[in-house]
Design brief:
The complex is a heterodimer of chains A (288) and B (339). With 288 residues, chain A is mostly helical. Chain A has one domain: MetI-like (MetI-like fold, Orthogonal Bundle). The longest helix of chain A has 41 residues. Chain B is α+β, with helices and mostly antiparallel strands. Chain B has 2 domains: 228 residues, P-loop containing nucleotide triphosphate hydrolases (Rossmann fold, 3-Layer(aba) Sandwich), CATH 3.40.50.300; 81 residues, OB fold (Dihydrolipoamide Acetyltransferase, E2P) (Beta Barrel). In chain B, helix 2 packs across helix 3 and helix 2 packs parallel to helix 4. The relative contact order of chain B is 0.12. The chains are: A mainly alpha (288), B alpha+beta (339). Chains A and B meet through helix 7 and helix 8 of A and helix 2 of B. Chain B: InterPro entries: AAA+_ATPase, ABC_SmlMolc_Importer, ABC_transporter-like_ATP-bd, ABC_transporter-like_CS, ABC_transpr_FbpC, P-loop_NTPase.
Chain lengths: 288, 339
């Protein structure tokens, strides 16, 4: 052949590049894309190999409440995580008492190094009706023993997730706040803004993207943690992860578990879409 | 709020264990334009920041009008500062930047917007309100930063090297504009700069600083003609320092003068003696500088810079004369001798 096909030539030019990224692509395909596709497909396949929505219907029928519960717990946790990490990162950035800032900087990261299962176990002994928190409140005379109640329900989940994820989001947020042009903060204070207004109206809008990243990553974590709902709450309704594990271990029913997993994918996919759209908008604005 | 005078009394500032300002006292009359001038690291920006409340004083007092502001947080001081990097809020529009200080003061939206329009008019940027800050040029950003400071009608305006990030031509324009605006509004203004030309052109009073201390407070003319000591003189462009000789017209340990005052005489005229400093020397170097020639000549152990209207070949013997009025006489302690 004397005249090379131009498209074949293009392919040959791309070959070294493709070979370089092949191991990474292969790992993503084998470890992520294939299992994901498989579980999505299996959610719609019946015993004879035909298409069915029966698993999906069973999942909604049996676990619809758990899906809603999961979404509500996740949203409440994210709300608590945002408020707390904004407060901590804000104090680290704008705090005027050096020793308090140093102490806080040192303290807030600790939960990062504690596994979820330990966090769940600790929460269990801390938040129970006769747990450490209630004992402390009763002993210090702040609470009537008759009013003591267990927080081992959705509140326990929200508190545990927040406790575990706040340091992570704070870490991202404090880093982003530290790289905000300091003079924009000083200009606002100079113009008469107190520190709280500075945080909310000047600093926070400039680190909005980072906060969103932190929250989306936290959402994915909350959607996938099994140990915390297993440890913290008993009975119904509970988180979807718990129900998926239940379906698989007790019934060997992968199809319905996969159908439940589909809801997890959908929820995180919505968050990912929001995030991508926002970064694209920011990117376009930055390029203009 | 009205224009107010500023008074610094024995102000000392320590930052991270280092003493930045030593016992600085200064009084700035209401409505005046004062420049803090000095080399980098002399403490001039720290002094400005301490007035705005960003550098807590170790001792001393800052008084604005009748009240002491040294103990107040920045947001309670009412000073308006323009930052070197402009510090415009990137997430707001131009109008948002201008109206935010008014919003902080609880002024109604309609009035805020009206005042922002007026300010844009005053700054020569009408119709820019809806633009993003990121789409403005350096000069435009500078004007918006200035407008944001002026919109609250502050008792005092603090400028931290406001023109240093701009091109030379824009800088010269804005320099005049800023000065005219200041005079029109009659606002007490303190500006930090390391550019002596800028300070001389704009200020009513220049405060010359060095190593955390005030070296000299004088009008531009006085500072230029009579710098307090040799280092101050060098900072203000006195590039020639020669040891005085008994037959020089002024008695001193050392004499300083600027090369633009040192003229080359091709013939060794003795008539200049008595009302001029005269040195003979060999030309080392002659460079064209646009309007004339800049010469380096060797006179004994000293090297003198001088100007000439015509080129002079290196190696020629020449005579340089400096009129007595352009000489600055320094004593053995390097301080300027009284006339």
């Amino acid at each position: 052949m004397t005249i090379a096909d131009p498209s074949a030539r293009d392919w040959r030019g791309m070959l070294p590049g493709l070979m370089l990224i092949a191991p990474a692509l292969l790992a993503i395909a084998l470890l992520y894309v294939v299992p994901l596709a498989r579980s999505v497909v299996f959610a719609f396949v019946d015993a004879e190999g035909g298409f069915t929505t029966a698993h999906l219907r069973t999942a909604i029928e049996l676990y619809g409440r758990d899906v809603i519960f999961t979404v509500m717990v996740a949203l409440a946790s994210l709300a608590l995580i945002s408020v707390t990490s904004i407060a901590i990162a804000g104090y680290l950035t704008l705090g005027a008492t050096p020793w308090a800032v140093t102490a806080l900087r040192w303290l807030y990261r600790w939960p990062l190094f504690i596994p979820f299962i330990v966090a769940g176990q600790t929460a269990r002994s801390f938040l129970a009706r006769n747990g450490l928190m209630n004992s402390l409140l009763i002993d210090s005379g702040l609470m009537d023993p008759a009013l003591a109640q267990s927080l081992l329900d959705w509140r326990g989940l929200v508190l545990t997730f927040a406790w575990k994820q706040v340091p992570f989001v704070t870490l991202l947020l404090a880093g982003a706040m530290a790289s905000v042009d300091r003079s924009t903060i000083e200009a606002a204070r100079n113009m008469g803004a107190g520190r709280l207004r500075c945080l909310i109206e000047i600093v926070l809008p400039q680190v909005r993207g980072t906060l969103l990243v932190g929250l989306i990553l936290s959402l994915v974590t909350i959607m996938s943690v099994l140990s915390v709902p297993m440890m913290v709450i008993a009975g119904n309704p509970t988180m979807m992860t718990s129900m998926m594990a239940h379906r698989v271990t007790y019934y060997g029913d992968y199809a319905v578990a996969n159908a439940l997993g589909l809801f997890s994918y959908l929820i995180t996919a919505v968050a990912a879409y929001v995030y991508l759209r926002m970064t694209l908008t920011q990117h376009n604005e930055g390029g203009r | 709020m009205g224009v107010e005078a500023l008074e610094l009394q024995g102000l000392s500032i320590r930052l991270g264990g280092a003493q930045i300002l030593h016992d600085v006292s200064l009084s700035v009359p209401a409505g005046s334009f004062t420049c803090l001038l000095g080399p980098s690291g002399c403490g001039k920006t720290t002094l400005l920041r301490s007035i705005a409340g960003f550098a807590p004083p170790a001792s001393g007092d800052i008084r604005l009008g009748a009240r002491s502001i040294a103990g107040l947080p920045p947001e309670k001081r009412g000073t308006a500062m323009v930052f070197q990097s402009y510090a415009l809020w990137p997430h707001m529009t131009v109008a948002g930047n201008l109206t935010y200080p008014l919003k902080l003061r609880g002024i109604a939206r309609a009035e805020r917007e009206e005042r922002a329009e007026q300010m844009l008019e005053l700054l020569g940027l009408p119709g820019y309100g809806a633009r993003k800050v990121g789409s403005l040029s350096g000069g435009q950003r500078q004007r918006i930063a200035l407008g944001r400071a002026l919109i609250i009608d502050p008792p005092i305006l603090l400028l931290d090297e406001p023109l240093s990030n701009l091109d030379a031509a824009i800088r010269r324009n804005l320099r005049g504009e800023l000065r005219r605006l200041q005079q029109r509004l009659g606002i007490t203004t303190i500006m930090v700069t390391h550019d002596q030309e800028e300070a001389l052109a704009m200020a009513d009073t220049i405060v010359l600083m060095r190593a955390g201390q005030v070296v000299q407070v004088a009008s531009p003319q006085d500072l230029y003609a009579r710098p307090a000591d040799l280092d101050a003189g060098r900072f203000l462009g006195v590039d020639n320092v020669v040891a005085a000789r008994p037959d020089d017209p002024v008695a001193a340990a050392t004499l300083g003068f600027r090369s633009m005052d040192a003229r080359i005489r091709d013939t060794a005229l003795e008539e200049a003696k008595g009302n001029a400093l005269v040195r003979h020397g060999t030309v080392l170097d002659c460079a064209y500088t646009g309007g004339g020639y800049h010469l380096q000549l060797e006179s004994g152990a000293e090297v003198i810079s001088a100007v000439s209207g015509v080129p002079v070949a290196p190696g020629s013997q020449v005579c340089v004369a400096v009129p007595t009025a352009s000489l600055m006489a320094f004593g053995t302690d390097q301080r300027l001798l009284p006339n």
